[in-house]
């Protein structure tokens, strides 16, 4: 994940819903804590927020959910993200052709 977020992916951390940002789908949703740690390191959220993981008042749930700025799809069951990512890629390609 470190290589993807810090050396490969293109995104604007100040504009999480920018349509030109690369997308990341965590198919193994219950591995969300490592994703949140990467987000903190990349500056998407304050590092202190990591201490609120899975607390009722926190946005850092046990699985990534779309209410989080950089989450496009909720995942949970293993492999669920593959279909979602394929659909997102197909839709993106379709809209790129429409321009």
Automatic annotation (TrEMBL):
* GO biological process per UniProt: pentose-phosphate shunt, non-oxidative branch
Q: Which GO terms describe its cellular component?
A: endoplasmic reticulum membrane; extracellular exosome
Q: Which InterPro entries match?
A: THDP-binding, Transketolase-like, Transketolase_N
**Gene3D superfamilies found in the cross-reference section:** 3.40.50.970
* Recorded superkingdom: Eukaryota
Q: Which UniProt keywords apply?
A: Thiamine pyrophosphate, Transferase
Q: Which positions fall inside the Transketolase N-terminal domain?
A: 3-94
Q: Does the keyword Transferase apply?
A: yes
According to UniProt, the name of this protein is: Transketolase-like
Query: Taxonomy-wise, where does this protein's organism fall, top ranks first?
Result: Eukaryota, Metazoa, Chordata, Craniata, Vertebrata
């Amino acid at each position: 994940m470190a290589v993807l977020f810090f050396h490969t992916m293109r995104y604007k951390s100040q504009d999480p819903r920018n349509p030109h940002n690369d997308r990341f789908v965590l198919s193994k949703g219950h591995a969300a804590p490592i994703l949140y740690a990467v987000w903190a390191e990349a500056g998407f959220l304050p590092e202190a927020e990591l201490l609120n993981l899975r607390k009722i008042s926190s946005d850092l749930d046990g699985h990534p959910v779309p209410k989080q700025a950089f989450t496009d799809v909720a995942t949970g069951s293993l492999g669920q993200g593959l279909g979602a990512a394929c659909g997102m890629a197909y839709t993106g390609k379709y809209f790129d052709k429409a321009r």
